[in-house]
Write a structure and sequence with these properties.
- By secondary structure, the protein is an alpha+beta fold.
- It has a single domain, classed as Aspartate Aminotransferase, domain 1.
- Helix content is 29%, strand content 27%.
- The protein contains three helices and five strands; from the N terminus they run H-E-E-E-E-H-E-H.
- It has a five-stranded antiparallel sheet, with helices on one face.
- The longest helix is centred in the last third of the chain and has 12 residues.
């Protein structure tokens, strides 16, 4: 699943800057950086601000006790189209 997320970044932005930052893969443009990481029960995706046009779609993935974080549980299919929309919203 982590490779699938990485591939989405590369598909959308083939020349995007790819780094390890805070021990996580990070992808950045001149204004914004997105991160993701694998944990025991989910993949975390950061930082995703609130109040975007995607808020209704993101609500079920919002981490309960973490600001601006999405959780994608391993037992559910990865919401690839939603991840693409989030990446485009922040890095376009």
């Amino acid at each position: 699943m982590l490779d699938e997320i990485r591939n989405i970044f590369i598909e959308l932005f083939p020349d995007i800057e790819e780094r390890i930052s805070y021990n996580m893969p990070s992808y950045r443009n001149e204004k914004y950086t997105l991160y993701f990481a694998g944990y025991k029960n989910h993949i975390g995706f950061y930082p995703i601000g609130r109040g975007t046009e995607l808020e209704n779609d993101l609500a079920s993935y919002r981490a309960k006790n973490a600001k601006d974080t999405l959780h994608f549980p391993y037992e559910n299919p990865l919401p690839k189209e939603l991840i693409k929309k989030v990446i485009m919203l922040h890095l376009k």
